[in-house]
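Protein chain data
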Amino acid sequence: MMETPNERRLAGQFCDAILQVEDVQFPIHRIILCDCGPFFQALFQHQVTTEKVFHITHVSPDIMQIIIDFAYTDSLAVTKDNVQELIVTADMFNITSIIEACSKFICEHLCPQNCICIWQFTDIYPFSDLRRKAFHYIMRHFEGVVNCEEYLQLSLQELTEILGKDEVNVRNERTLFDVILRWITHIPKEREQHMAVLLSKVRLGRTSIEYIENNVMTNELVKFNPECLEIVNRSFKILWSFTTHIHKPFKSCLRDTPARPRLPDSIIMVSGGKNFSTVSCGIEMYDPLVDRWIISRDKLKDPRAHHGTVFLDGYVYFVGGSDLLEILNSVVRLDLRTHTWQEVMYMHYRRSRVSVTKLNGFIYAFGGTDGYIWLNTAERYCPKSNQWTLIAPMILGRRSASCAALDGKVCYIYVCGGLIRHYSTKTAECYDPETDQWTMIGRMNISRRQHRVVAYKNQIFAVGGIRGVHPLQSIETYEPQTDTWILLCPMMISRRNFCLEVIDDKFYVVGGSNVRKRSYHAEVYDPETDIWSSISDSKTSYDGMSSCVVSGIPNMVDFAFPRDSLPLFEKSEKLSHHFNTK
């Protein structure tokens, strides 16, 4: 059997050079190391051909061994203990593949305790992709990051850079005032002088007059600092403009700090739908922080209605549906980072009016119709293998049902209602992915089809739909522990074939129809108060649209409402519903 180059190296055969690292010698073949990167090409090229020993400095023998093994075997042993030294050495040797592998490893292990250290590390060693991902992690998980010791070691410049970004993900601007005080009190004598600079980064115009009076103005570092008082005074003018509507609106009220909204961590994406003889390719997004709808520059690759939509790992998947001409088993996905479309493996069955959800990194499709029968079949998609696999069929064949996954200590998927034979049903069933088995659960209070189901705080909520020929306003919730459904406060209007999503403990409903006409009206439900209220109407509305929540993407600015396009002043009471959320 022909020996591999690595076997020859280990046997010491035909080696034409030795790498000397400290007191360790590594016999190697020059041609193999030259393929590894330009550093070794230059090293061997500029040395006299008779020289056999090459001294390598600023590298440990252990790391050199890993790099040599990689050059011969193309395998890399990256661990938490060696990754930092390995990526620095790979940078020195200009070995791109090792740098990429180390960056990927580090990104997979980002956490609140290490993300700042990694971000600062990339300031010394400019690994652009790693720096971008570390900074995005800090932005998205900021409220957890500031509770770690690394946060207290940030420089003034680093902290002001972070606080000034629209991307900082905080539930309320008041959090940032507390964050600043914690950073200052860590080294008060050195940091108290920076209070005004840091306070200018807090968007106090998005808090309240009462908060500023009771919490900000009473702080010793603020009330005796003229620069801080000027910042507070500007915020007061903005808040008075919003609350009284009497004074002349303060210039740049929403576009600029201190009232400029930050970017949302999550938005709602609504796609497709049908209008009589037309099926839409349109995509519309809802930005909950400014209560605005945006028509996306991205359009569906093919028109779809009554399809399913899932956001997973930076992609939005569009599953099945129909284009009026045929029922589809095709699946496409939109790469949100590059705005490009990709076709993925098609389903085993053509499915319109399908129920779709995600759980533990998989996408599930249940029931629907193939144009002839109501399907009870179910299948699961694995993005890593790009394969759909048939799983146990549902107990009942359903179309126009809806499903949701409860992801906790025990993970189940619930499929509720729908059309069975020719009648709406109250029945619901539960799927256990561990055992691949279905179980019937307690019946809903009201039979529903063309409704929507969501999971929230270990409960299942069924909303709207149609019973017989009557569109529904009703909403009910299922408690798995008691196997019972309880009716809650109904929606403001009845609707079917609409979109329903949950963001920040609020239920958002948009689109659909009440049989006679399509609905542009959108509304939001607060499960804590059991109250529905209006939000801005959508720009488009079709029957059979599909939606999903897009969250945590690094280029959210591409999908959120442009902050520079916000009005100078907004008198709409609808905005006040969202005004103090961040």
